[in-house]
Amino acid sequence: MSEKVYVLGIESSCDDTAAAVLCNNLVLSNVVAGQKIHESYGGVVPELASRAHQQHIVPVVDTALKQAGIDKGDLNAIAFTQGPGLLGSLLVGASFAKGLANGLGIPALGIHHMQGHILAHFIADANEQSPTFPFLALTISGGHTQIVRVDDYFDMTILGETMDDAIGEAFDKSGKLLQLGYPAGPEMDRRAKLGNPKAFAFTKPTVDGLNFSFSGLKTAILYFIQKETKANPDFIHQNINDICASIQHTIVEIVMDKLLKATAETGIKKIAIGGGVSANSGIREAIKSGEGRFGWTTYIPKFEYTTDNAAMIGICGYLKLQSGLTGSEDQEVSARLKF
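User: That's the sequence. What structure does it adopt?
Assistant: Structure tokens below.
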């Protein structure tokens, strides 16, 4: 293998078509094409997503190669998201990656989407410094909420995960009740900064161990909104910032309680976060505050590496090559791929 290893990463697990080129652990390009069509439906429509991926995949990959200043013939491997995600969306990215890799005579490497979020911390410019093993990873997104013990690049153990809804769903569904549009998470975060986090109290679910549950909280918020708007039709409009702040505060407390329990049980005080919801300012600030309050060392990547992106898939591909792990053509995609 040459000293410079070029990996093309392709991410197509949901509604973003993304491609990135890495030279070793350095990102040369990181291109993302979103899909605005889902906004009018209040959520991602799988069939529309897969069709849009088919339209975007060639121009996105072409742009990534051009921005990186290399030709496809320079590539040493192609990494693609194998799962979990929307099956139709995954198939578009995987089929393209395998076909191109086969034509070039190079490996196609299937990557677990959530491992991508965790290993994004090892991109050269993701953090001031990368975490050292072992560390705890909090992966939070629209479809996942997990606390993972990471002992090596591909030696990961899920210590706790959501038993029902993911944290991103809790934000988006609550935001939908408040008519904040889709996705509601960023707007809720913005409004929470303007509100009183102690204005309204929501009961935190009791869940054993390090697992999470957000379905009960969503229901409690629904009943709260219904009760208050029945008494005052303008309740949401008059209290929107305080409602957002109170919901976000409750969710952040749930996360912090579990992280404290995880550090106590494992003795590991290195915390790395990843996934789209880790862009939430309330969660970032709370985890960062753990450095002074609990003696944690925290790793919070650049925003561009927290949301779904192909650079995180590319770094996994590079690390797999370095570890001697190569793929095969029978790497089937899976909507519910396990670690």
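The radius of gyration is 20 Å.
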